[in-house]
Write a structure and sequence with these properties.
There is one protein chain. This protein is α/β, with parallel strands linked by helices. The protein has 20 helices and 10 strands. The strands form 2 sheets. A 6-stranded mixed beta sheet has the order 6-7-8-3-9-10. The longest helix has about 55 residues, at about 240-290. The radius of gyration is 36 Å and the shape is elongated. The two termini are about 65 Å apart.
């Protein structure tokens, strides 16, 4: 029952293997000349290798003919044959090393190209994919997948193809110069060996797949616990994290033991086939010598061929297993590359032409999942050069508006236009170049502060970067650090406080200099004093820009040209700050509640402080 259930998937897996091998060809095409030259070196090396036993045979036959006359034996010392023997040995080594040198560029360039293509494809995949992915597992899969390309090329160039070439040359010599029974015995043994290897290795592949799955799962658990280091410490759950990790590794250990046990069975089966094959061929050779059908030199030749064939054949099982494992690892990469991006540009999509920067939502419906609608018939206009604010409680759908403007998702119904152009009709690159954002949750690269600010416009001059930092009120803070602009902010910017990270994000947006600005809770992590300074900066930056401010703190949007109040994915109120207060609706309730909170904070003289001086 178990065997039957596993048979069908194996057929599909084999088809994937050939599909993936074909998928590697484009990565080799760049250096096809080098690959062909390496193949020529390989063939020459094997010709030299096969020539060694032939020369050895002639040396033995020479001495056999002169054995009754020691003087003649010394006089007829086969210098030319000995020189040929040494030259063939040297040629085999030379062409093997030349092949390695020539092919190295092919192998490592293929790894480089595939790694670059995978990263490029990951950047093209939708935000939905990246929100669902497990970073640790993807990281391990990518590492194994790109390494598998090098391994497969290595095994094919240095093990499989050389073995096939050598087998072919030996087969020609055996069939031409000896009775067919020798070729039949020798290559019959090889065929049995290959069949035993393939059968047992295919049976073992399930163990390897299970080990890979659990290895990725364990790596993801460890990675996730380290990313959330502070949360683990807050709740004292180190032992729980270790327990989860160890339980996964316990399952991995069980599969690994089964894999090792089955490998021992395979090795024994291979050894038995080799032993029987060698015994059979040598028996036939000895019988031929006794009957006078072949010479002692022929016996030496056959024995040398056996050594040359069966010694590398002893590694065939390992090579085959590693190729299968590498193909299984590479399958993860090619499946990822075959995954279609959710958001793609239309053919020949034009560039977004921004004049004023007007944003218009018309009847927009959207949900992250079909069964859960987030936005319901949103009509929203941000006139060119105006500042429009969207407020509401958490979960109202405010931040979703920013994601839709960036076209991280496409709307389910309705449309979003910028200066009359549907954003689905223009290229994503030109759309995102026209929009700058200061997000609520700022994530920085584990690089210097200078690098993180310059990321807004990498070609900017240092003076422009410093000016952007000054406008974001973070320049003095940076220059007061021991390493100043070269201070590394840590993974995800963890060495900076929330307020400092947001000021870096503001400086980055200022440096980008887009026509449209989005502030998504841009001052939510700032203390009151810094918030006031930043508000003045944002007002200066937003001048003559189309600005959408998404906020929970109402004090930050009182100067907006218009304010929209959202609740449960709908716009429930519109108007200026004064108009909404006078209407005594949802906005007025939020305003009164936040005013009371501010009064309590002022009475308690509580001011949030940054971790690193923010």
């Amino acid at each position: 029952m178990q065997t039957h259930s596993g048979a069908a998937p194996q057929v599909h897996k084999d088809r994937r293997d050939w599909h993936n091998l074909r998928g590697m060809l484009p990565f080799l095409w760049e250096f096809r000349g080098r690959a062909l030259f390496a193949l020529a070196c390989l063939i020459l090396a094997k010709v030299a290798n096969v020539g060694v036993p032939i020369v050895l045979k002639h040396i033995v036959e020479h001495f056999e003919q002169a054995k009754d006359d020691p003087t003649l034996m010394a006089a007829l010392l086969p210098v030319s044959l000995l020189l040929a023997y040494g030259a063939l040995k040297l040629g085999s080594a030379l062409f093997n090393e030349l092949r390695d040198v020539v092919f190295a560029k092919v192998r490592y360039r293929a790894m480089r190209r595939l790694s670059t293509r995978v990263l490029e494809h990951l950047h093209k995949l939708s935000l939905r994919f990246h929100l669902d992915r497990q970073t640790g597992a993807v990281s391990r899969d990518l590492e194994r997948g790109t390494r598998s390309v090098s391994q497969i090329l290595n095994y094919m160039a240095f093990s499989v193809i050389p073995m096939m070439v050598e087998f072919g040359l030996v087969a020609v010599i055996l069939l031409r110069d000896y009775a067919p029974v020798f070729a039949l015995a020798m290559f019959g043994s090889v065929a049995v060996y290959v069949l035993v290897t393939l059968a047992i290795t295919e049976w073992r592949m399930d163990y390897r797949h299970s080990m890979n799955r659990l290895d990725s799962q364990a790596n993801n658990q460890a990675f996730d616990s380290l990313i959330n280091y502070e949360t683990v410490k807050y709740f004292g759950n180190e032992r729980m994290e270790l327990s989860r990790y160890d339980q996964t590794l316990e399952e991995w250990e069980d599969w690994a033991v089964k894999s090792q046990t089955s490998m021992s069975m395979l090795n024994f089966g291979q050894g038995a086939v080799i032993a029987l094959g060698v015994t059979l061929v040598m028996f036939l050779a000895m019988r031929g010598v006794a009957a006078g059908e072949i010479s002692i030199g022929d016996l030496v030749l056959l024995n040398a061929f056996l050594l040359q064939l069966f010694i590398p054949l002893g590694f065939l099982g390992i090579v085959y297993r590693q190729i299968k494992y590498s193909l299984a690892d590479m399958d993860l990469i090619f499946k990822l590359l075959e995954r279609e991006p959710e958001i793609i540009d239309r053919p020949d999509a034009p560039l977004l032409a921004v004049s004023g920067g007007q944003i218009l939502f018309t009847g927009v419906e959207f949900g992250y999942q079909p069964e859960r609608r987030i936005l319901h018939g949103i009509d929203l206009e941000v006139p060119a050069g105006h500042k429009i604010a969207v407020v509401g409680h958490s979960g109202a759908g405010k931040s979703t508006l920013a994601r839709l403007i960036y076209r991280f998702y496409d709307v389910d119904a309705g449309s979003i236009t910028i200066d009359g152009q549907d954003i689905r009709e223009v290229s994503q690159d030109s759309l995102r170049a026209a929009v700058g954002i200061v997000p609520q949750d700022t994530v920085l690269f584990n690089e210097s502060i200078y690098y993180n600010i310059a990321y807004g416009r990498p070609q900017a001059t240092r003076a422009e970067i410093e000016r952007a930092a000054a406008m974001a009120h973070i320049k003095d803070f940076i220059e007061g650090l021991p390493e100043a602009w070269e201070t590394v902010v840590g993974e995800r910017g963890l060495k900076l406080s929330g307020g400092e990270k947001q000021r870096v994000a503001i400086a980055r947006a200022i440096l980008k200099g887009p026509r449209i600005l989005i502030f998504d809770e841009a001052t939510s992590s700032l203390d009151s004093r810094t918030e006031l300074a930043i508000q003045e900066t944002l007002a200066e930056v937003a001048a003559n820009h189309t600005t959408l401010v998404i906020a929970h703190r109402l004090s930050t949007v009182v100067d907006a040209d218009s304010i929209l109040v959202m609740s449960a994915g709908r716009v429930v109120e519109r108007g200026t700050h004064d108009e909404l207060l006078a209407a005594k609706g949802r906005y007025r309730e939020m305003w009164d509640l936040q005013r009371k909170q501010r009064e309590r904070l002022d009475a308690s003289a509580v001011e949030p402080q940054g971790v690193a001086g923010g």
